[in-house]
Amino acid sequence: MTALFVQTLQAPTAGEAQDAGGQDVAIAGGAADRFGAAETTFIAERDSFYLASVSATGWPYIQHRGGPTGFLRALDDRTLAFADFRGNRQYLTLGNLRGDERVALFLMDYPRRRRLKILARMRAHDLRAEPELAALLATPGYRGLAERGFVLKLHAFDWNCPQHIAPRFGAAEVEAAVAPLHARLLALEAENARLRAERQSGV
């Protein structure tokens, strides 16, 4: 884990639990408070992520956010943003932000068993009042209705190990994997049709 990420999250009780379990947390060098090329590329390839916020009751709340690939945008090396598409209209995350801007994100790449964890502060923006931001977050052709924009200021990030991440594949990955088989099947069907035609014609 990166130093800033650990320093932010590790309360004394976590240290006590680690001591009791005989476990030392390996801390990597660097603050990890700016996205590099690897993080920016990874973020751009995602079509969903998990977002956690904290309510005034003290209970954490986590939700799934989805959209077209790349809807979560890296505006610069410390800023993310995405369009908030209309969902069940419970507005729990939006309400939580009014009391605490701190959020955590899990970005998953199931086929390659990779995950990126992000700590940030998030604010809601009225896209009608900010046309430049609206243009940056536009997703032409996507059926979702953007009710607002969310802008996140990075605090720290950390790459997690692949242990216990079960590979899962979306429609695009499955289609790419079976494309050679489908092409081969079409070729065999064409060859079979040719051979039948030759046999019937006595060639």
Structural key phrases:
203 residues, Pnp Oxidase, Chain A, 3 domains, 6 helices, extended
Short description:
With 203 residues, the protein is of the alpha+beta class.
Topology:
Layout: H1 3-9, H2 12-20, H3 37-44, E1 48-54, E2 60-66, E3 73-76, E4 79-85, H4 92-97, E5 102-109, E6 114-125, H5 131-137, E7 146-160, H6 171-201
Antiparallel strand pairs: 1-2, 1-5, 3-4, 4-7, 5-6, 6-7
Give an overview in words:
It is a single chain. With 203 residues, the chain is an alpha+beta fold. The chain has 3 domains: 1-30, no CATH class; 33-167, Pnp Oxidase, Chain A, CATH 2.30.110; 169-203. The protein has 6 helices and 7 strands. It has helices at residues 3-9, 12-20, 37-44, 92-97, 131-137, 171-201, and strands at residues 48-54, 60-66, 73-76, 79-85, 102-109, 114-125, 146-160. Strands 2-1-5-6-7-4-3 form a 7-stranded antiparallel β-sheet. A hairpin with a 4-residue loop joins β5 (102-109) and β6 (114-125). The longest helix is centred in the C-terminal third of the chain and has 31 residues, at 171-201. The protein is extended, with a radius of gyration of 23 Å.
**Could you state the order of secondary-structure elements as H and E?**
HHHEEEEHEEHEH
Mean pLDDT: 89
Q: Rg from C-alpha positions? A: 23 Å
Tell me the CATH superfamily of the largest domain. Electron Transport, Fmn-binding Protein, Chain A
From the spread of the alpha carbons, the general shape counts as extended
Helix content class? 25-40%
User: How many E-type strands?
Assistant: 7
Strand content: 25-35%
| Class based on secondary structure composition and strand pairing | alpha+beta
Instruction: Provide a count of the helices.
Output: 6
End-to-end distance: 71 Å
* The CATH top-level class label of the largest domain: Mainly Beta
Q: Architecture of the largest domain, CATH level 2?
A: Roll
Q: Assembly state here?
A: single chain
* Largest sheet strand order: 2-1-5-6-7-4-3
Q: How would a crystallographer describe the biggest sheet? A: 7 strands, antiparallel
**Which spans have pLDDT < 50 for at least 5 consecutive residues?**
none
Total domains:
3
CATH fold-level assignment of the largest domain: Pnp Oxidase, Chain A
